[in-house]
Amino acid sequence: MWSPQAPEDPLFGLMAAFRRDEDPNKVDLGIGAYRDDNAKPWVLPVVKKADDIIRNDPNLNHEYLPIAGLADFTSASQKLILGGDSPALKEKRVTSLQTVSGTGAVHLGALFLAKFYKPKSQRTAYFSDPTWPNHFQIFSNVGLSHKTYPYFSRQTKGLDFDGFYNSIQNADEGSIVVLHACAHNPTGVDLTQDQWKKIAEVIRAKKHFPFFDTAYQGFASGDLSRDGWAIRYFVEQGFELCIAQSYAKNFGLYGERAGCFHFVTAPSSDAQSTVGRVASQLAILQRSEISNPPAYGARIASLVLNTPDLFAQWEEDLRTMSGRIIEMRKALRSKLEGLGTPGTWNHITDQIGMFSFTGLTEQQVLKLREDSHVYMTKNGRISMAGLNTHNIDYFAKAVDKAVR
Ligand code: PMP
To answer: For position 357, what pLDDT does the model report?
Structure first.
């Protein structure tokens, strides 16, 4: 058996290079995981609490979950993302399966579309340019072709709304449009509610199929409904759509692989039978791929989501994480402005979520790595969670040096 050598995953390669670096001042801004002010992984206090409760439960066992996962988890996940009073839930137009985190949810959705959405020649998936690189791999692995729509403007370091809108308008009717619900990865640039409404209009006019990827609900603004607004708006507008939901970031359950895939059908007299048929096919796909999902992370999330006082504590923990990141954005911008670093830096505080697209060029990124032992992806993306009160001065000065 022969296969060509595949390139190393750029992000995991970056992590390895960081680990090899022995400089005491090294800074890791590549990681897509939250770190506390001491650059350490943070177990959410509410997760610790739920973990203790579950571990001490004398009835805990390690049986298989059902194919679609833990029912209490999937139903709480529906309410979380769609809102408890969602018309789609009242009308039973949603079917959901627990997945192997957000990646597994994106994959299950893509696989389902590859099998049942339109003939092959008539369906292209559109991703934002840039997007989470795994979108390309996941969709092409299941045989879906893809293109990109403009998203990030290098000039403003904000949204290229006209480019986005026009590209969706010019796409073949019935294309799949992959949308980041909030805290766009890698740019940190989100749409305003008005912009979402306009994009919804053009998606409706062109009969496109929206596919939402939500990996940062509550983590972006600290407010779960605000971060879920776009999805709720599309559902209220009666779209048929799917949602890939991850609990990696907002629960800090990265390695536990807790996630959910939701398929929402449009309102119609046979919506419930459509949902039933979709659910039956999704179950077959799930069974052949993972048989049934991993239990532990979903148990933790489910306990928190279904217990009011734990849920309130979770919201507090979300505010701790998002609040620290927002503070780091403010501090970085003000330090760069204070140093008189060439360029404008308002985009650092305009952007939201885990990542910021700094606008640093590949050459500057490499210079930062060589001269200052600062690690970030070549596209100039930094993980804001890698900054803290101990390294932010060092980082701002390193950037200042690299851009002069
Ligand atoms: N989609 C996007 C846009 C992401 O940023 C991520 C996390 N990096 C994911 C999906 C899925 O991550 P996970 O599989 O760890 O839940």
So the answer is: 93
CA distance 132 to 60: 37
132 lines ligand 1 (CB under 6 A): yes
Q: What CA–CA distances, in Å, run from 255 to 100, 275, 298, 305? A: 10, 31, 12, 19
What number of helices (H) and strands (E) belong to the chain? Answer: 16, 11
- Decide: 180 in ligand 1 pocket, CB within 6 A: yes
Mean pLDDT, the chain, whole residue set? 96
- In angstroms, the first-to-last Cα distance of the chain is 51
Q: Determine the residue type at 358.
A: T
Please check whether residue 397 is in contact with residue 339, taking contact to mean a CB–CB distance below 8 angstroms.
Answer: yes
**Where on the phi/psi map is residue 94: left (φ > 0), alpha (ψ -120 to 50), or beta?**
beta
Determine which one of 132, 196, 314, 345 is catalytic: 132
For tokens 């780091």, name the residue. Answer: 328
Whether the Cβ atoms of residue 257 and residue 101 lie closer than 8 Å to each other: yes
* Own/partner long-range contacts of 388-392 (Cβ < 8 Å, ≥24 apart): 388/35, 388/36, 388/37, 388/38, 388/39, 388/328, 389/37, 389/331, 390/37, 390/38, 390/39, 391/25, 391/27, 391/39, 392/328, 392/331, 392/332, 392/335
The mean pLDDT value for 305-323 works out to 98
pLDDT 10s digits, 132-185: 999 999 999 999 999 999 999 999 999 999 999 999 999 999 999 999 999 999
Any ligand 1 atom below 6 A from CB of 217: no
187 lines ligand 1 (CB under 6 A): no
Q: What is the mean pLDDT of residues 373-391?
A: 96
What would the pLDDT profile of 244-275 be if each residue is shown by its tens digit?
999 999 999 999 999 999 999 999 999 999 99
DSSP category for residue 35: B
The yes-or-no answer on residue 132 being catalytic is yes
269 CB-near residues (< 8 Å, 6+ apart): none
pTM: 0.96
**Helix (H) or strand (E) run with residue 258 in it:** strand 258-264
User: How far is CA 98 from its chain centroid?
Assistant: 16
* Cα 304 to ligand 1 centre (Å): 21
Q: Is 138 exposed, middle or buried (0-12, 13-18, 19+ CB in 10 A)?
A: buried
Q: Ligand 1 center to residue 107 CA distance, Å?
A: 11
